[in-house]
Every structure is written in structure tokens, then in C-alpha cells.
Design a protein that fits this description.
The chain is mainly alpha-helical. It has one domain. It has three helices and no strands. It is globular.
């Protein structure tokens, strides 16, 4: 789910977070938790 959102936004984490209706901080936490940069 995170990766698909990042693909759609061309790697833009802020836009990906908006797509998923979560905060940017939440997005960063989830990426770090799963070892995705």
C-alpha cells in the first residue's frame, strides 16, 4: 500500500501521505518501520 502510493506520486512522500489520508509524520514512521526509504 505504501509502495503503490509512492509509485503513483513519483516518490513524493508528502503527496503519498495525502493519497493515503495519513499525516506525513505517520507516513515517515511507517516507512521506517518497514525499512523503506
Amino acid at each position: 500500500m505504501l509502495l503503490k502510493a509512492l509509485e503513483k506520486t513519483g516518490g513524493n512522500k508528502t503527496e503519498a501521505a495525502k493519497l493515503l489520508n495519513i499525516s506525513f509524520r505517520s507516513m515517515r514512521y511507517r516507512l521506517e518501520k518497514h525499512g523503506i526509504e
